[in-house]
Amino acid sequence: MKDNLARDLLEIKAVQINKDHYFTWTSGIKSPIYCDNRLTMSHPKVRKNITEAFVSLVEKMEEKPEIIAGCATAGIPHAAWLADRLALPMVYVRSKPKGHGKGNQVEGELPAGKRVLVIEDLISTGGSSLQAAEAVRREGGVVTGVAAIFTYGLEKADTVFQEAGINFSTITGFDQLLEALTDDGELNEEDKRELLLWRDQLD
Ligand SMILES: O=P(O)(O)OC[C@H]1O[C@H](OP(=O)(O)OP(=O)(O)O)[C@H](O)[C@@H]1O
Ligand SMILES: O=C(O)c1cc(=O)[nH]c(=O)[nH]1
């Protein structure tokens, strides 16, 4: 499943590598790689594979969610498809409280004490999904976990979730992507080693 999804991301050209012009991530990290999971919205078969992979993750979870929460913005559509597939209620979580109207950070109904699974598209440092999980907790929700399509596998992310007492699970990630690219001859062993070293020095 992990390898298949990495291949799906490559097929829809969600992944760009540019060693000459680095991308800036939301955390400020400069990166030679960018994975645009937003493109999955435009590919019904791929987004269905993602929904089914999330369903498999949920099936393995001891604590079953009662509400699915999408992280704004890229997590929202996947949360909606998963909530629909599981016939569960859904909310979404803004990156910060709305500056007008009701001033909500969490939109939708979130009764206190309900078990909530937070859905994110991608985890780099884990900062965005942790913020969303904390907002859910402030509203009285019980966060049963964070699940994402893709992780860069940074130790930093493991640490922040561990410290917050949150389980996180992912469908695919950087290692699977590099394997697929090497198998396809798009990267040679030296490029792969360089990218792994680059990732590892981020921690
Ligand atoms: O683990 P982190 O270091 O927080 O990085 C991952 C976050 O960055 C991206 O969002 P972005 O801020 O680009 O916003 P978007 O979802 O609205 O596109 C991505 O969709 C995650 O939410
Ligand atoms: O960390 C990020 O901001 C980030 C990295 C990435 O590869 N893709 C993305 O959408 N965001």
Short description:
By secondary structure, the chain is of the alpha/beta class.
pLDDT under 50 segments (min length 5)? none
Report mean pLDDT, rounded to a whole number.
Answer: 97
Query: Main sheet?
Result: 6 strands, mixed
* Number of contiguous helices: 7
- In the CATH classification, which architecture applies? 3-Layer(aba) Sandwich
Give the CA-based shape: globular
Rg, Cα atoms, Å: 17 Å
Query: What ligands does this structure carry?
Result: 1-O-pyrophosphono-5-O-phosphono-alpha-D-ribofuranose, orotic acid
Alpha-beta classification: alpha/beta
Number of E strands: 10
User: Which range best describes the helical content: under 10%, 10-25%, 25-40%, 40-55%, 55-70% or over 70%?
Assistant: 40-55%
Strand order of the largest sheet: 7-6-5-8-9-10
Beta fraction: 15-25%
Query: What's the CATH topology name?
Result: Rossmann fold
Tell me, what is the CATH class? Answer: Alpha Beta
Number of separate domains: 1
Order of helices and strands: HEEEEHEHEEEHEHEHH
Distance between the termini: 27 Å
Binding site for 5-phospho-alpha-D-ribose 1-diphosphate: 94, 98, 100, 120-128
Keywords: Glycosyltransferase, Magnesium, Pyrimidine biosynthesis, Transferase
EC number: 2.4.2.10
Cofactor: Mg(2+)
